[in-house]
Amino acid sequence: MGKKISLAVVATLMAITAAVTFSITILFSMQYFNQKVQSLSEREATYAKLAEVDGIVRGNVNGTIDETALNDSIAAGYMRGLGSGLGTYYSASSYASYLATASGQITGIGIETVAESNGYRKITAVYAGSPAEESGLMAQDLIVKVNDTDLANAGGVTYDSLMAGDVGSNVTLTIRRGTEESTVTLTRRNVTIQSVYSRIIADSNENNVGYIKIKTFDDQTLSQFISAFEGMRQEGISRFVFDVRENSGGSLEVAASVLDKLLPDGVLVSYRDKDGNEEVLYESNGAGTEVSSAVVLVGSGTAAEGELFAAAISDAGYGKIVGSTTAGDGGYRRFYRLNDGSAIQLNVGTLLTGSGTSFDGTGVKLDFTVELASEQKRDMTTLTDDNDTQLNKALEILVTAQ
Asked: How many CA atoms lie less than 13 Å away from 103 in the CB half-sphere?
């Protein structure tokens, strides 16, 4: 038979429960209030110092203040003050430029260059179907003048500003090829960035290996990758080298989409926030193409989504990683657009591979460490199939894996 409980006991228990609930609520409320007060105090201190500086400047400066430039500098300084890797400020114009580049479509002549020590620019890539290609420009050509500006004596004028212009406008380049110089005038137009380069390499056993270089992850990368990868698959190639040695990132969504074409069903990437909570960002639909073996080439220029690509391939047991220590840039970043068209990019967590592996601060775990010569690291266009020790190691691994 069950025991009866008096109303007095029930009332006492209810009172105790209410008291405990009230105490817990008060405790959390006080903690929340204290956090807010601390945040407000810190914010007031920041604003007070800025107001003090602003008051002194406006009352004494001998010159005109450019308010837009001032506000951009204040916002940029704030983001820099957070510390390395935590955030970046984009002015309205730089954010618009970023979005254009991320789309894989730019206005220009369709070249990539690297700065020489004397100020000249060496062409490292010419996009297919671009004004540069149509004009006969080639990788290794040296740009010595842009219009009438000699790049060796450009002063404070930047190469990027000289090359910038609207669709339909012209730019005249003085090109040095070997010892010969020539002048060519090109018309700027919308150009598709070539982010994927591919070719077929014969290994030491005269068997074909598919080589695919992914320079960045923009809105054009997925279609370019599928075209290269599926084209090689149709030719019977099942062994691949994926080169992300100069890939410093781009769109996380695009990187996940490329991985989705390669990896089996499961989580592709998730992130851990500042409170330790984990959230899945992208999953594979299980339609990944099975290949017999793969190697990913990485280097010091491999960062962010470039590192994620390599880490995910390794994490899934899909391929080996060859190269040198990567950047260790594994932060998960989000953009927040501001009212004036500018934006901030903020590190809000840590990227994780499907199994929960992080490369932030450490870089991608290498299966084989192979270093390039310093000149090769500075200018990857000096690499050939003969002197590229990292590529040769990858081919050696693929031969062994047959």
From this structure: 11
